Amino acid sequence: MTQPAALVEQLKGGLDAPICLTWELTYACNLECVHCLSSSGRRDPRELTTDEAKAVLDELQALQVFYINIGGGEPMIRRDFFELLEYSIGLGIGVKFSTNGAFIDAAKAKRLAEMDYLDIQISLDGTDAPTNDAVRGDGSYATAVRAMEHLRDADFGPFKISVVVTRHNVDQLDEFKALADSFGAQLRVTRLRPSGRGADSWHDLHPTNAQQRQIYDWLVVNGDNVLTGDSFFHLNALWEEPLPGLNMCGAGRVVCLIDPIGDVYACPFVIHDEFKAGSVRDEGGFANVWKHSDLFTELREPQSAGACASCGSYDACQGGCMAAKFFTGLPLDGPDPECVSGHGEAALLAASSLNGGISAPRPMMDHSKPARVAAPERVPVTIGRR
Amino acid sequence: MLDRHLVLNPQVALRPEPFGALAYHYGNRKLIFLKHPDVVRVVQALGGHDTVADTLRACDIDEARWPSFEKALSSLNDSEMLV
Fold first, then answer.
1. In what order do the strands lie in the sheet with A255-258?
2. Residues of B in contact with A94 (CB under 8 A)
3. Cβ contact B7:B60 at 8 Å
């Protein structure tokens, strides 16, 4: 048989349609997680209407997108959430949606359990309330567990528990697995990114270098039964045995993000103008952005290894995550800030000693709720013409 | 394998791609890469023939390549892409 080019090389050149399309349905959220990738909180008045969202789904069906990953914000806040869910599934586009569980009561769980081609991912960042709530907010642990109980009681089947691995929950990986098993659920663990509000919390939350090793060792043993969204490929530089998955950055090649107002970004971790390829509202719609945007075309060309070219591990780690570099102020053709050989730490240190400190790009599209401040003393105000 | 009658699982969708095709199983959520256009051709033709061997012959696949097709089809069968 004539050998086609290695699959990964083919995938780097891009696909006719994404495999992993994330669609954040709304910026509105009942929580204010400190690591929120999309800095969600308040709804954006420009968000896609129901008709616009359905038109995007029609397009995705024509492109033969098999399934979409819906998130937010909290997607269940949208009043047309079930309408869009049913419309998508009716078109043959499976849905996996991420939720904090606040809106899954017994009745909703039953309704969800009756739908085919639907996966649910409950976000949880600790196996106890103090660990989880420190990141996701007071009461969020109890909320998530209640939702999981409703799904179990409704016989939803194997939903997913989705964990962002941090410095503070890395020791709980076995407990997360046990928790998932006790619900008949599947565990998903992903990498913390310095994106959105994570830009401000990353330095305090991201796993230490020793913990990176711990994550890798755990995934080597448990990886076949745990989903990771292929997000830990930077750890492959640690040893010969690669983690399960594609081991490449899929941004703009097999992955992309549609944000609540219809803007299309290279991946869910880079909500910034520099990685915006276009909008589903542009002429030609999503398909045109996916197939012809300058940004995606560029991302599908061979990428330079830059400062990593002389490192023997580059083939294994691929230089790590573009978003992690970008939002920590590191050059895209250099080491990942969490490079397991320590090159990232060195680069961060070198960069921060220049110009009196590192100047990382700020995430854009901040929909955080206004900081709560103590109400000021009431002062008499006169309103009049001036 | 060669004398079996296999067809593409009705729960599986094929999407053409430059390297061959993507196969997605809506039931078990598995995504599989069909890494050669000839494999895609054979998989699509399976339903129209009594056996795998008949299909390979009808698709003009050289017999020297049959072992690699058997391997590919077995793996698709294991993932329930074929029934």
1. A186-191, A160-165, A118-123, A94-99, A67-71, A20-24, A255-258, A263-265, A276-279
2. 26, 29
3. no
Token code pair at residue A246? 């594609």
Q: What is the separation, in whole angstroms, between the first and last Cα of chain A? A: 84
Q: How many CB atoms lie within 10 A of CB A173?
A: 20
Q: CA-CA distance, A119 to A156, in Å (whole number)?
A: 9
Length of chain B: 83
Q: What is the token pair recorded at B13?
A: 């969708």
Q: Which residues of B touch A1 (CB under 8 A)?
A: 36, 38, 65, 68
Spatial separation of the C-alpha atoms in residues A22 and A264, rounded to whole Å: 10
CA distances from A361 to A8, A34, A326 (A): 30, 18, 7
Q: Which residue is it, tokens 């060309």?
A: A301
Treating both helix axes as pointing N-terminal to C-terminal, what angle do A140-153 and A129-136 enclose, rounded to 10 degrees? 110
* C-beta atoms of B19 and A7 within 8 A: yes
On whether any CB of chain B is under 8 Å from the CB of A119, the answer is yes
Rounded Cα distance between A342 and A9, Å, is 27
Tell me whether residues A67 and B17 touch, CB distance under 8 A. Answer: no
Q: How far apart are CA A330 and CA B8, in angstroms?
A: 48
For the stretch A217-234, pLDDT in tens is 999 999 888 999 889 999
Q: A157 in helix, strand or coil?
A: coil
Q: Do B24 and A67 touch (CB under 8 A)?
A: yes
- Interface predicted TM-score (ipTM) of this complex, two decimals: 0.88
Spatial CA neighbour of A249 closest among A320, A198, A303: A320
In this predicted model, what pLDDT tens digit does every residue of B31-60 receive, in sequence order? 999 989 999 999 999 999 999 999 999 999
- A90 touching B (Cβ < 8 Å): no
The string of DSSP letters for A38-89 reads T--BS--TTPPPHHHHHHHHHHHHHTT--EEEEESS-GGGSTTHHHHHHHHH
